[in-house]
Protein 1
Amino acid sequence: MAPPPKQQTMKERILETADKLFYLQGIRAVGVDTIAAEIGISKRTLYNHFPSKDALIAAYLERRFVSQRPSDKPPAEQILATFDSLERRFAAKDFRGCPFVNAVAELGPADRAVKKIAIAFKESRRIWFREQLNELGVADADALATQLVLLVDGAIAQDLVRDDPEMARAAKEAAKVLLRNAGVDMEGDAVMQHKRTPQ
């Protein structure tokens, strides 16, 4: 018999509710009163767990800061799967773009704490691309990693404007061109880099 699901702590409940409301309605549009009312608690209870709205915003973004899962798939396949994952996300009814970009756009560059978290998240994605490209032996992995994250963010922006998951597929095709130009063999089903000869 499966063990009963673990009971959420009050802090987890507050954070989960804030996550949903901040992402779907906007950080500025949602006050702590709304979050407390949604859970059925007082503002004082909320402030016992998060001393300010700024602290709650930071916790919300940190909760969204999820690392890429390790995979045994070939690096080029992992890179292209990023765009497949985007396409699925775009098709979801609750997709509202990148929470980190949204937060910076809403709160402005003066909010250094939010900007710092957003930059760290974006850089973690760029480094992940660079690691895959290094595995493939791409000469200028750093520059290509930057180009790939630009494709990701561009696809997100286009989907938000057009409401069209096909934007992820278009970005994937552009990624294939970039990989092919970097020397990655993209022919057939095999997506692999010819091994470099050891120096």
Note: The longest helix spans residues 112-135.
Protein 2
Amino acid sequence: MKNGGERLNLLASLLTFDSGLTVKIDRLIQVLLPHDEKFYSLFEEMTKLLLKASVALKKIPDSDASRTKAIVDEIEGLEHQADEVTHRIFAELNATFVTPFDREDIHQLASSLDDIMDYINGTSSRFILYNVKSATQYMRRLMEIIEMQVEIVGKGITYLRDFRNTRMLQEVLKKVNEYENDADTVFNLGIADLFENEKDAIELIKLKEIYMGLETATDRCEDVANVLESILIKHA
């Protein structure tokens, strides 16, 4: 019986062709050997938390002060749960020999998803910290876009279980990018409106911070799409 090192050397020799083309051993191992399914479940758990947070965020503009505080607390709790899931992903990454796709992609995907939650949480908390009484139409629209992005990102994550869903995953990537472009337009209009109509300099700074947080959350959704695209290309 050959040991693990001998088997890998044999596999390497079989993958070297007359043309000199050598297939990456680690990529073939990922395909042929059984690997831990926990990563898929953990990523899906993360996107469910993100969707809950984005739905809650969208409720803030129509809530009074006490209700807003309750929503912010809810989102903070979801952010803590997301941190725990991220730590579990990293722990699994350190403990798993064969991963379903490249380790750097797993790490980047987890980090990017966590970043979305961080910006949703940070932006929601500013409504309380800055004592912001109302949200503009542009803020409302950005919140809607974040929810739509998170929902479609969640679908993309589920497609990772089966790379035969190439076309569906490509549609997800396209949609996320379209939403991000919409968010850029809304953000620019909102900032222009802010500088045009807000005469209180301190209030202007507060509102601009909220705009920045919302827009950055949409950027982080696009970061997730970029990681998904990288994974798709490697497994095409």
Note: The CA atoms of residues 85 and 91 lie 10 Å apart.
